[in-house]
Amino acid sequence: MTARTIKVGTLARVEGEGGMLVEVHDGRVENVQLNIFEPPRFFEALLRGRDYSEAPDITARICGICPVAYQMSACLAMEDAFGVTVPDEIRLMRRLLYCGEWIESHALHIFFLHAPDFLGFDSGIDMAREHRGVVESALRIKRAGNELMSVVGGRSVHPVNVKVGGFHRMPTVQELSAIRPDLVAARDEVMELLPLITSFDFPDFEQPYLYVSLGAENGYPLESGSLVSSEGLQAPVHDFGEHVVEEHVAHSNALHARFDGRLYVVGPLARYSLHAGALSPLAAEVAHAAGLGPQCRNPFRSILVRTVELVYALDEAIRIIDDWQGSVASVPVPVRAGVGHGATEAPRGLLYHRYRIDESGAITDAQIVPPTAQNQPSVEDDLRVFVQDRLDVPHDQLTRQCETAIRNYDPCISCATHFLDLRVDSR
Amino acid sequence: MKPLVVGLGSVDRGDDAVGFLVVRQVADVPGVDVVEVSDPSRLVDLGAGRDVMVLVDAVSSGSAPGTVHVLEVGEEALPIGSAAASTHWVGLGEVIELARVLDMLPARVVVVGIEAGSLEHGSGLSAPVRKAVPAAITAVLDLLD
C-alpha cells in the first residue's frame, strides 16, 4: 500500500488562518480537509440583546477586508424587519460605497495574493522585486478603492457613516467629484495590467458547479437583489433558509453550508456566470479579451473574473458619481417586532444576515452566513478532484497547486486579528 | 511630514485591541498624525514620504504578557514569523518588507509591541496588558520626542 499526504499547516496568502490536508491511499484521494479556524459564532452571540441600530457597526468588525459587506447586509435585514424600503438614491450611494470595497479587496487578491502563484513567486515581496511597476500600480488601484470608501463611509478603522435607513451624512457632489480622477486613473491602470493577467497559464480544470448569487434588477448584482441559481431558481432572500442548511463538520469549527443538500459556489465565478450580460461595455470587453465565455467553470480562472469585476466596479463607481445629484441622507425607521433577511454580494460572494427583533428594537436572534462557509465544501471537492487526476505531479509542485486552488476562492477565514508572532533572540 | 503613529488591532479579540487603546492616548499630541488600522495591507504605502512611523500592536513572542517591546526596524527584516504566523494575508513583517522593496518605508520605523495574554473573542484586555498600557504610551511618546 502506498500512502501520500499533502499537508500545509498554515496557509499563507489567505485571509485569516487556515490549514489543508489531502490524504492519498493506494492511488485514491481518501481524505480532504480544509481546516479553518473561523471565529466561533462570537458575533451572533454578541448581537443578541443589542439594539438593532448597532448591528451595522458591530458586524463591520467581523472582517477588516470587507466591513461594508457586513454593514450592507445588516442594514437590509433590519429594513426588511421594519418594512422600510430606502429610496433609489440611498441604494445607489450604498452601491458606490460597496464598489470601493470591491476595488480594494479585488486589487489586493488579484495582484498581491493570487498573481504570485501564476508568476511563480513565493510571496508578493518577491514579486515586487521583479515586477515593481505592477505592484506600484496595484497599490494605486487599491488606494483608489480605499479613498472611495473613506469619502462615502468616513475615515476610521471601519466605515462609520452607514446606518439602518441610509447614511449619517451624504457626501457632497464636490467630494465625490474630487475622487473621480483617481478612479479613472485606476481603471486605466487595470487595463494596462490586463495583458499580464491574461498571459497566465491556467490548469485545465472545470467543475460542474451549482452557482448561486443575487440577481439584481439593475446591473450586475452587488448591494441588493433576490436569489438566483444556475439551475433556474429565482427566489426572494426570505427563502434563503429554506434552501441553505449549515452543518458542523468535525475537522473545522467553521460551518459548512449546502444548498438544497448540494455543494454550491458563491462569488465572482457565480456572479459572472449568471450575470455576464449585465456587465458594463468595458468590463464585457475585458471578459472577451481574457477569453472568458458566457460562463466560467475553471476556478483557477477566477483571477480573470475578478479582474473583470474590478473594471466593472471602477466603471460603476464613475457612473454613479457622474449621475449623482444629491439625496436625503436617510429615511425614518419605524421599529416593530419581526424577522428581517438581508443579502448582498461581498467581494467573496453572497453574504446573508437574518435577525429577529423585539418590539423595543432589541436583537433577540442573529444568523450570519458568510461566503467562505458556503464555498468551503466546494473548495474541498476541488482539491479532491484536482489531486486525483495529478497523482504523478511532484510533491512540492502539487502542494503549491493545491494552495493556489484554495486561493481561487479568496477565502476569508478568521478575519479581524493580526497579532505578531515574534521571535526574540535570547542570546 | 509629521511622524505617523499607527495603531493595529481588532476590538473584539482580547489583547489585540491594545494598539488602538495606546494610539488614542497620543492622538492629541501636536505635530503627530495618528491612524487606526485593522487591515495591515493598508500599511504598505501609509508611511510613504514620512520620516518617522511608529507601529503599535499586540505581539506574541513567549515573553510575559504585558511586556513592552520596542523594536527599531533597521536594514534587516524584523524577526517576525512568516506570513503563516500572522492571521492576515501578510503579517506586519511582510508589509514592512514590501514597503522597503518599493522604497515606501520611512527612514525610521519603530514597532512598539505589547505582549498579548489572551486573544479570545470577547475577552477584553487581560489584566497584565491593561497594566502595560501606560508604559506603552510612554514608549511611544519617548520615540516622538
Describe the structure.
- The complex is a heterodimer of chains A (427) and B (145).
- Chain A has 427 residues and is an alpha+beta fold.
- Chain A has helices at 42-47, 55-60, 67-82, 88-119, 124-130, 132-153, 173-198, 240-243, 268-275, 281-289, 302-323, 371-388, 395-407, and strands at 3-8, 18-25, 28-36, 162-163, 166-167, 212-215, 226-229, 234-235, 244-249, 252-259, 338-346, 349-357, 363-369, 420-421.
- Chain A contains 13 helices and 14 strands.
- In chain A, strand 4 (162-163) and strand 5 (166-167) form a beta hairpin.
- Chain A is globular and about 65 Å long.
- In chain A, 53% of the residues are buried.
- Chain B is an alpha/beta fold.
- Chain B contains 3 helices and 5 strands, in the order βαβββαβα.
- Chain B has helices at residues 18-24, 92-101, 127-144, and strands spanning 4-8, 33-37, 52-60, 68-73, 108-115.
- Chain B has a 5-stranded mixed beta sheet.
- In chain B, strand 1, helix 1 and strand 2 form a beta-alpha-beta unit.
- Mean pLDDT of chain B is 87; it is low at 82-89.
- Classes of the chains: A alpha+beta (427), B alpha/beta (145).
- Chains A and B meet through helix 1, helix 4, helix 5, helix 6 and strand 14 of A and strand 3 and helix 2 of B.
- Strand 14 of chain A pairs parallel with strand 3 (52-60) of chain B.
